[in-house]
Amino acid sequence: MRLFGYWRSSSSWRVRIGLAIKGVDYEYEAVHLVEEGGKQHAPEYRAHNPMRQVPLLEWEEDGEIKRLSQSLAILGFLEERFPGPSLLPGSAYDRGRIRQLAEVVNSGIQPLQNLAVIQRLRDEMDQDAKEWCAYWIRRGLVAYDAMVLGEEGSFSIGDTPTLADACLIPQLYNARRFDVKLDDLERLLAIEETCFDHPAFQVSHPDEQPDAAG
Ligand SMILES: N[C@@H](CCC(=O)N[C@@H](CS)C(=O)NCC(=O)O)C(=O)O
Description:
The chain has 2 domains: 2-84, Glutaredoxin (3-Layer(aba) Sandwich); 92-201, Glutathione S-transferase Yfyf (Class Pi), Chain A, domain 2 (Up-down Bundle), CATH 1.20.1050. Helices cover 49% and strands 9% of the residues. The protein is built from 9 helices and 4 strands. Helix 4 (92-106) runs parallel beside helix 7 (163-177), helix 6 (129-148) packs antiparallel against helix 7 and helix 7 (163-177) packs across helix 8 (186-196). The protein is globular. The relative contact order is 0.16. Glutathione binds at residues 9-11, 33, 38, 40, 52-55, 70-72, 106, 114-116.
């Protein structure tokens, strides 16, 4: 398998976490999102992901090249395809709650602070993109924190890492890049600490990727 990603793309990091939890080997192909105007816009990449985003997973099956984009779709595929630790454990209700949290990040936070949105606000509309991003990240993380406050496990839901944690941890990393206040979100910080004791979160960290900027 080959993962097209970018070291500090939060959506790419989600997939790296899933691959590491599942113990799936893969090649990593860096797509620089900024250099040369952003390699996600290059015609050859765009042909494979018209959304012009990372991640993109590519593999060969039955003599055919298959590709998937959208991190949650990729993680759902990995969950169905590979046995081993489940990213969606528990009852139907537990899985619903895990997906609910993943969506808080995937549709409620990340799209509002994505690079293309920042570039449009900052470069074409002359707006304070950093303030915009910080506002939406904080708003979403406050909601996430409230939703896991009564949970008893050490991860977001339960005592093993799930799809929800694979979304949360990269989003907390992004929050710090935008100087978002986090110190009062104690439950999220505790979950983050638990995750960073887990090897899947360590090996997938942006700083550990071959394209990490020094
Ligand atoms: N919903 C998509 C979001 C993907 C996405 O926004 N990727 C960002 C990096 S985290 C990207 O490639 N941005 C490039 C751009 O905005 O030009 C997913 O979950 O994969």
